[in-house]
Amino acid sequence: MNAHPVPAITDSDLLHEAFRSFDDAAATLQQSYQTLTSRLEQLDVELADRNEALRQNLCANEQLREHLTAIVESLSTGLLVMDEAGIITRCNQAGTQLLGLAHEQIVGHSLAVCLKEARLDGDVYPLTTQQGAAVSLSQRALQTSDGRHAGSLALIQDVTAVRELEDRLQRRNRLAAMGEMVGRIAHEIRNPLGSIELFASMLHRDLNDAPGLRRYAEHISSSVHMMNRLLTNLLVYTKPDCSHGARHETEALMLDALTLAAHAVAGARVDIRLDVDPLAPHIWCDAGQMKQVLLNLILNGIHAMPDGGTLTLSARLTAEPAPGVPGMCLSVSDTGVGIPAAQRSRIFDPFFTTRDEGTGLGLAIVHAIVEGHRGRIDVDSVEGRGTTFSIALPNHQEPSRVPIRESPAMASGDEYSAAEMLDERLLVEEETSA
What we know:
This protein is an alpha+beta fold and 434 residues long.
């Protein structure tokens, strides 16, 4: 059996096989390149999407940060953030204002150092800032979401308005208790006073032949009349009669009060200024009572300016003191000696006075009459610069809103007669306190 001969592999066959293998490898490489290119394009799209999401997230975070910063800076409460070492790392604008320190004096320092420098390191409530505001201070720990300690937070809150409301409530309760006691005493004294006046008039009649003794009886009657005027003022304080409310011209009311005070103005080097807002031409009040209020305040202002100065009476509309009720504000300002801070809480107390010749009923009556009109009176004073008494009244449009109180001390009718106005002027001059 003869073997078939094996064909010989030539160089051409080898070269052909090599080209075929190269073509296959090139095709595979081309396919891999296309796959890689497609993947790279997909990655580029995903990266662009991620970058856009990250940009939006950063933008949202920046807006949130700006929003939170605006909220923190808009707070009226001072906000101090401290790290774990107790060093202040952040302080809002209210904090710098209430502390009275620059931002650089706060951030980077401890809370104790800042409070000491701001003179708020006392233990009396409320603390008083260098600007005169009453503040409260509280401190609490900061924790992360997982409960770890992350420093602390100090809050400085302005409680001036709250303190004023507390003082006003305490003053009202105190004056109400005093008024009840004073009213009872006044009625008890008036009973024997009538008997004294009766017997003094009988002595005066029976002593025609003894002029010296008759003068004693006249002195007794005069003293009884003075005491009766004092008791009348006490009864006005306890029960001011504000029942005759009506619309009156604001400027005319003020001018009438200045006319009553002409005797005091004439002997003083005082410049009188009247400022009535054209939008407030009328006021709803009991004219006689309000004249007495203004007269008392005018005399107080004149007495506070022994060396002369400026007395300003003004009237303007204010924000509504009650829902649906337009407000009127009357103010009497002087440029006198001012009221010491220690005395301001007592100036409306009956029988409190800084003048030797005063009995301390003037401002107490003013307060009672203003309360009778459902208003309020505030005082703003700086020693050496002057005092402003501001009366906020609801500018009623109907008389029923003014409370009706019975009083034997005041005459009826909207206006005083000439004799009543003169007697009231003398009475107020005698009783007004400084």
